[in-house]
Amino acid sequence: MAPPPPVWHSRSLEARLPFLRRRATLTADARRFFDARGYTEVETPYAVPAPGEEVHLRPFATAREHPDGTTEKLWLHTSPEFAMKRLLVGGMGPIFQLARVWRNGEGSARHAPEFTMLEWYRPGADMDGLIAETIDLLRATLPETVCSKGVTTSLSKFERLTVAEAFDRYVGADVLAAENDAGALAAQAGTRLRDGEDWEDLFFRLLLDRIEPHLGRARPTFLTHWPAAQAALARRDPTDPRVAERFELFVCGIELANAFVELTDPIEQRERFAADRARRHALYGPDWEMDEDFLAALTEGMPPSAGIAMGFDRLAMIASGADRIGQVLWLPPADLV
Questions:
Q1: Cβ contact 182:204 at 8 Å
Q2: At what angle do helices 81-89 and 292-301 cross, to 10 degrees?
């Protein structure tokens, strides 16, 4: 059997062209949507001194050579989030960006090491408002029924489900009562802890194995109110500090977006960064310095805001009916076609 043609070859492009043309239409539609709502499109640097504090995301390393001969180590960002929040501090809101982002070590039917993130932030928005705007975006850019990887989803109705409700329904566990107690969560879930598995590891194993297969299938699902331990950059819910004002969106069974009502407290943010850095360094060794410029921006004062990061390539998969992310990339890595 002859090897497949290179991704730039006419036969390869021809096979992907219907998906790529739909992606181009989707890009234009998304820009029109945000323009009509008073958003400003921004561009922020891709090579940055600190790419984020996520424990498990692996950035690509690079370096800048200065005219005086010195070298500065930089990283290709995994999200434009920190940069866009700096712009919110400066008064530039609401804003959106279609940004190229990089995450090393990734590659599958839904993951590419270099991909496009659609992020937007609106000062004054709360979770309900951001969910409503996300629904409006989907309905403005997608047909009422979409299909990817054999899963058909109707956009006529949307489901909202808290993480606690999802664990109760699909795992049979009270995840908030068992927070940070891996043994208790395992017992409730009727499973055994694996060697070296802590509470967070078990939480995500149960989420991936027992909950996510049920989400965003007949209709899109917003999975809301994550345990405070999984707050990331979201603020705690003022009515229930056990949970954070965070949601993920699932469509066609695909995790499409991650969103926060943003944490604006620089002291709490520094504490979270320090905890994440300690865990990451214990696992992978030292890396970049703390992003003091971002913390200084928070100290200056970021307005109450909500923001969302949506995988634009995955949105293009859903819009075009593609089954693999490589089908919606103009020049994908050969192993993703």
A1: no
A2: 30
133 neighbors 94 (Cβ within 8 angstroms) = no
Q: In which residue are the tokens 């905890």 written?
A: 275
| pLDDT, position 4 | 84
Flag whether the pTM goes above 0.85.
yes
Q: Residue 138 to residues 93, 122, 153, 157: CA-CA distances in angstroms?
A: 21, 17, 12, 12
Contact 33, 18 (CB under 8 A): no
| pLDDT higher than threshold 80 for residue 2 | no
Domains of the chain: 10-158+219-336 (3.30.930.10)
Peptide bond into 333 cis (omega under 30): no
pLDDT of 261-279, one tens digit each? Answer: 999 999 999 999 999 999 9
Q: Backbone dihedral region of 190: left (phi > 0), alpha (psi from -120 to 50 degrees) or beta?
A: left
By C-alpha distance, which of 250, 255, 247, 253 is closest to 307? 247
> Is pLDDT above 90 for 169?
yes
Helices marked H in the chain — which ranges?
10-36, 81-89, 127-141, 163-170, 182-189, 199-206, 266-284, 292-301, 312-320
Contact 247, 301 (CB under 8 A): no
